[in-house]
Amino acid sequence: MTIAPNSIEARDIAYQMHPNVNLRTYEKSGGLVIESGEGIYVTDNSGKRYIEGLAGLWSVAVGFGEKRLSEVAKAQMDKLPYYHTFAYKTHGPSIELSEMLISIAPVPMSKVHFTSSGSEANDLAAKMVWYRSNALGKPDKKKIIGRIYGYHGVTIAAGSITGLPRNHQSFDLPLDRMVHTSCPSYVHFGKDGESEADFTKRMLGDLEDLIQREGPDTIAAFWGEPVMGAGGVLVPPVGYWEGVQEILRKHDILLVVDEVICGFGRTGKMFACQTYDIKPDVLVLSKQISSSYLPLSAILMNDAFYQPIADESERIGVFGHGFTASGHPVATAVGLENLKIIQERDLVGNAAALEEKFLGRLNELAQHPVAHSSRGVGLLGALEIKPFADGKPGDAAAAVAAALQEEGVICRAVMEAVCFCPPLIITAEQIDEMFDALGHALDTVAASRA
Fold it and tell me: In this structure, which topology does domain 32-62+346-449 adopt according to CATH?
């Protein structure tokens, strides 16, 4: 695109450093400037409207422009715009949201600790795992198992648990106490002639072998997303989570479940732990907790996890951790109202009711000559694109995502897939609108390659 001097795009390039981009490319091309949003749509500074097919960053459950959230934010700003939860102090919104989260948790939980992002929450959860091992007199039980293509954030510990090379390269990550097991994506890593059941058995064998190589007494926790979102919407094979939990119980390894993307209705249940019968010791939540209207995340922990940490804080005199914005009153007030909206409007039920249509349309598009296959659960899905024979990895998916943006739909290209995660308020008609546009984009890419 042509960037006019002194335009907002030019000022953006001049002054702002963006995340998750090739910075030199951004200096030349600039970015899309979004000015407003309403429902499932956002509008750029030229007036063009788009379906936000990724709900921002997998997160705007109730859609854009929800007045109840802005009104609650203003009311809380007027009453108590900021206070902290340090040093034996607290405030109403953080208490009320903690109570709600404990009441709706997929398994019995004991305590909630708030942070401001999924990265921060996963990072702190890792610190607490180590703190707890010390409290139990197990100073060697510190290693954490992540998974190849898993994503848990970009802070030092969370980025190390993450299994994506782009988040490690040139950052001197991962830390040496983080190890990674195989990615359980049957569509990508199943061998010729291997059944899904045999693939699951191999994945579980890889995990057991890793534990034995490292030493069970050195491994503290296993981290996993029920569905691997930022890795490309990678859905677990049948029997995978049942087998993982059995292995972890056998070796006394904690299970930390990252529902930053999956939580609060995305899979057609309030939590994906309910979809896949997962029983975590620690549950990490963010994104849809506040529909990302304000930065907020939460760590839920069961009593067996919490009690040794509390004992250790008494022994040494303090739990020596905290963020200025932990449990921020405006963020927690908005989070509480957001969850009330999700419940009152049965947005979890909407995801479940529309799953068949959503996944069915993706499956129809998987028959397109440019496409390879589709996958998903609830209102979370991906269309795998056939790689270009003469291109670099990811070029084909990037081309489809670019063509789709021209059609007025924003998605996310991840490796060889285009991923979709629309606001939970989407309707059947809007699903058709979104995927009709994707069909046109596939046709455009096919014509450009003819």
Answer: Aspartate Aminotransferase, domain 1 (3.90.1150)
